[in-house]
């Protein structure tokens, strides 16, 4: 008697961000079907928030140190994925992958140097699909990776109804705007700033929030539903953030990575020597050996402090954006998707970078809020996303919402 074959293995964990595309696609399909039954104005809007280099160092993922009350609040009203992984821990291949719903071995983009429509296939993107189905599609900040990987146009005009917005202060990110201990300005990795003191008196993510809110106000009275993608830059290096956020993380509270050693027998191909942080003036001054380092312990604490402070700064920008969505009474008819393009190693395995295949570099936060599905519709005058102040130590921890571990 022949035996039944064993059941197929579960899908690999890296499958999850492709599921992201499929989920948004299925929402879109449902919306399209709904639109056939009623007027287009009944279709749900979509707000897609993409963060740059954010690993799940967030309260809603069980991190007890990081203060992220606004993202936690979103998670409490969302389906929260516990095992979501980027297809590749590099910006452009990851973004092109989940925005087209195709793996890098299909888009044939593993770096930054080609445009999929001419290099591999004329694949549609998620925003393009919404645009072709009656949505006004808008891009703010870093959604596609800039450069040839999105044809120097963020894939316009295919993906967007009008030209994407980029914050004007982005051009200062890698310039000498960080006040060093010598009182002079440097291009540092660690860059807490007095916002009033930097060029233009603002930071890119602040400008992106302002532009996104301006677009939401404009779309509130639009006859068409909208798809708004907002791409935040922090906590991508350099850690250039308002200096007050450093106070949330006293150095004496900062622990080191639990496994800070380069693993014995690690093949060199599995390791990245974090050259992009070595280029910064404050890291150069440490004269760290290539390729393995290590970084002095006190500087390791400072890197972790600045990463977490950047996450809390990002969290306040997300808070202002979602609070505005509430104020405009758009919470009851807008799906919110939140994710990151990949993670970042904070000293684990001796790494201070993305690029590797360790889970700290590939795992990402992923959550979906769907009005009336993942949380009850807000009542009259009720706000689902009131702004949460991370400096208010009395603010209660949010419950973490529904979790999916698949
Ligand atoms: Ca990135």
From TrEMBL:
Q: Name the enzyme group at the top EC level.
A: hydrolase
The residues the entry assigns to the signal sequence are 1-28
Gene Ontology cellular-component terms for this entry are: lysosomal lumen
Entry GO MF terms: iduronate-2-sulfatase activity; metal ion binding
Give the top-rank taxon of the lineage listed in the UniProt record for this protein.
Answer: Eukaryota
**Per its Swiss-Prot or TrEMBL entry, what cofactor is needed?**
Ca(2+)
| Ranges where the Sulfatase N-terminal domain occurs | 45-399
Family statement drawn from the similarity comment of this UniProt entry: Belongs to the sulfatase family.
The protein's job, in short, is: Lysosomal enzyme involved in the degradation pathway of dermatan sulfate and heparan sulfate.
Q: What is this protein called?
A: Iduronate 2-sulfatase
Q: Which organism is it from?
A: Cricetulus griseus (Chinese hamster)
